[in-house]
Design the sequence.
């Protein structure tokens, strides 16, 4: 059982009836993206990344979901033995795109992953977090290109790969 989230993560004022907080639609960065429909506050927990929690060996067995785009998955690394497959029983969080200068970050709460606003986010803004993907093999130019970043930020590092630990 996970601990309750701190009060500072209370959501923004409740949207009017029938209004959604988030919307999935076409992204100018890549494929689909998630957009704020209401103002979101810095520090606010926006959404939980949901999906089937599976062992890494099962994730590798399932990979790739789409052979024509083998590096695109909805996997979210939890720890060395488990991953969330957002493609199975996932929610709209799986459509949040990567950016090198993100407006959101992820927070791990006992294996549950939450997306949290780094700053105030206005309605209509697309949500982003830095994927900081870690691949076991050597980071070659070819590998970096396979995981190319399309965020367009002034300080874009050109890849969704994170630094090696």
Sequence:
């Amino acid at each position: 059982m996970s601990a309750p989230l701190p009060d500072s993560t209370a959501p923004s004022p409740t949207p009017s009836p029938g209004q959604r907080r988030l919307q999935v639609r076409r992204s100018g960065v890549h494929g689909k993206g998630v957009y704020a429909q209401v103002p979101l506050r810095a520090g606010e927990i926006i959404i939980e990344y949901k999906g089937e929690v599976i062992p890494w060996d099962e994730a590798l067995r399932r990979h790739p979901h789409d052979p024509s785009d083998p590096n695109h998955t909805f996997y979210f690394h939890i720890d060395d033995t488990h991953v969330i497959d957002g493609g199975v029983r996932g929610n709209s969080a799986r459509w949040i795109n990567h950016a090198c200068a993100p407006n959101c970050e992820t927070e791990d709460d006992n294996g549950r992953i939450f997306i949290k606003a780094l700053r105030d986010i206005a309605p209509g803004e697309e949500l982003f977090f830095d994927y900081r993907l870690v691949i076991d093999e050597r980071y070659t130019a070819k590998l970096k290109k396979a995981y190319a970043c399309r965020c367009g930020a002034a300080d874009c590092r050109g890849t969704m790969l994170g630094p090696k630990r």
